[in-house]
Specification:
Blueprint: E1 7-13, H1 20-32, E2 38-45, H2 51-58, E3 68-74, H3 80-90, E4 95-98, H4 110-116, E5 122-127, H5 135-152, E6 163-166, H6 167-170, H7 183-193, E7 198-203, H8 218-238, H9 240-244
Parallel strand pairs: 1-2, 1-4, 2-3, 5-7
Antiparallel strand pairs: 4-6, 5-6
């Protein structure tokens, strides 16, 4: 596929009408400056504001050097994990990176991710600070990292920030835990168990300017713990590779 994009930038959006256009434009401008073919894939996750219409208005075919912008709509809100799975299913690129609609990173750092990809199957971003975290959310953050490292023995410094994935690898992994915040850690743990090359990369964090963060809520935290221990038990009883291998019927 000579015209296949090298990179898909996945932007999930739920009620992000205040910042979606600026985010997409910032990413598009950065992609246009890079020597590669790229696309932006917006997954509208059942938004109830004007996000669906706004996303459709941003959609455009590729017009080099501008990347193509495509949109997929969920009829109802299914959560960021389901939006990620939809992005994996619809992405056309060889590599995929999820960037939130509020960005959470400087698009200029895309070049750093791509440079690191030459020696990796997953480039694991490590955010530089937690300046906008409450004390409770900081506690959750550090406890999560410590627990994952203790239970699974995978010595990454972070598991929940922005990563760049080889799409062929993602499609070998059964994304089971799309209903909780364990999903991103699940991907890294399974990729590591399957022998993928994980390279960590320090990235400057950009705090959210619009919209509202939805993490660190008790129902989500409890669901995340449930999924973490469910997968750990399989990891413990079956072994890492068997626990991580894609099921034939998935």
């Amino acid at each position: 596929m000579p015209d296949r994009p090298f990179l898909t930038v996945l932007i999930p959006a739920y009620n992000e009408s205040a910042g979606l256009a600026a985010g997409v434009q910032a990413v598009a401008a950065r992609l246009a400056a890079l020597p590669l073919v790229a696309e932006i894939l917006i997954v509208d996750d059942g938004s109830r504001d004007t996000t669906p219409r706004l996303a459709d208005s941003l959609a455009a075919p590729a017009a080099p050097p501008r990347p193509a912008v495509r949109v997929v709509h969920h009829p109802v809100n299914r959560g960021i994990g389901a939006a990620f799975a939809t992005g994996v299913a619809h992405a056309a690129g060889q590599w995929l990176i999820l960037i939130p609609a509020d960005l959470a990173m400087d698009p200029a750092d895309l070049a750093k991710y791509l440079a690191a990809a030459a020696q990796a199957d997953v480039v694991v971003g490590n955010r530089s600070d937690l300046r906008d975290y409450s004390p409770f959310r900081r506690l959750v953050h550090y406890t999560n990292i410590a627990l994952l490292r203790l239970l699974f023995g995978v010595p990454l410094r972070q598991f929940q920030y922005i990563s760049l994935y080889r799409l062929a690898l993602l499609r070998q992994i059964d994304l089971e835990f799309t209903g909780s915040a364990f999903l991103l850690a699940e991907i890294l743990l399974k990729a590591h168990a399957l022998g993928a090359r994980l390279v960590e990369l320090p990235i400057a964090y950009v705090p959210r300017r619009t919209g509202r963060a939805t993490g660190a809520k008790w129902p989500l935290l409890l669901a995340t713990l449930r999924d973490l221990f469910r997968f750990w038990w399989r990891w413990l009883t079956r072994g890492p590779a068997a626990a991580s291998r894609r099921r034939p019927d998935s």
